[in-house]
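Reopening: structure tokens for the adenosine-5'-triphosphate complex, inputs below.
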Amino acid sequence: MIQVNDLSFSYTKSPFISGMNFSVSEGEIFGFLGPSGAGKSTLQKILIGMLRTYQGSAMVNGVECKKRTKHFYENIGVDFEFSTMYEKLTARENLQFFSSLYEKKPRPIDELLERVGLEQDADKRVADYSKGMKSRLNFIKALLHDPLLLCLDEPTSGLDPTNSHMMKNMILEEKAKGKTILLTTHNMQDATELCDRVAFIVGGKICALDSPHNLIMSKGAATVTYTWFENGEHSASCPLGRVSSDEQLKGLIAENRLQSIHSSEPTLNDIFMDVTGRTLV
Ligand SMILES: Nc1ncnc2c1ncn2[C@@H]1O[C@H](COP(=O)(O)OP(=O)(O)OP(=O)(O)O)[C@@H](O)[C@H]1O
Ligand SMILES: [Mg+2]
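Re-run output (same inputs, fresh job):
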């Protein structure tokens, strides 16, 4: 679905994105992770044909992005960080208007509104929507024309846990239908749950690219931390794979003196800090 070869781009005279290569298969959820200003949105804007002064190649659905025509957008749905609705129109009027821009028959508007819990507010002006309501509306706008590729830029930011869960389920439903999804997020939990593969982006460059599972495994085994009481509280750790040879732990278990024991797996954020020396937010 996406093939990027030797991609370079700059807003100014100095290069920003340079020599970037990656591809995304049909039906894949592909995540862009990186600190603020890393170039995630820039990359998405190139892939949807908004920024066309790049060098190298960025192909989406068989089309070189800088040569996109109107038809290119029949198969791309975009939910970017900021609401793109007409504030004076109602949610329903907005969705009706945006549907009319596509050649394809739109998905039923009422069904989509209901799906994200906006059916009661369908005839309210968007100006009177809350931030989370706007996010949900923006998301279903991206689904209106049932596109093959969804580009989602921080879709769950500003949503409460229930709505965030609902949106993640809807993203997985689109994947189950074979849709390809590009997802930018600062939320490591979301990325781990949703993405087949993620690319860590820092300073316009990809510094790691793999499945969340492989990236987490690359950090090494989980650690077991245990505590016990002996003239005050003590704690010790050992790798999960070596618990059976940790003499101290074996002794504490035999004497039934353990106060607590738990394992902790590395997270994507740990990997990100290892690979880049930076935190994600
Ligand atoms: N239109 C523009 N003109 C000049 N510079 C820009 C423009 N848009 C973005 N930039 C710069 O490009 C860099 C990358 O911005 P981008 O929006 O791609 O970051 P991001 O990774 O999406 O960050 P965030 O997580 O904050 O959304 C930033 O330094 C930003 O200031
Ligand atoms: Mg961004």
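The chain has a mean pLDDT of 92. The domain at 2-216 is CATH 3.40.50.300 (Rossmann fold). Marking as resolved unless the reporter disagrees.
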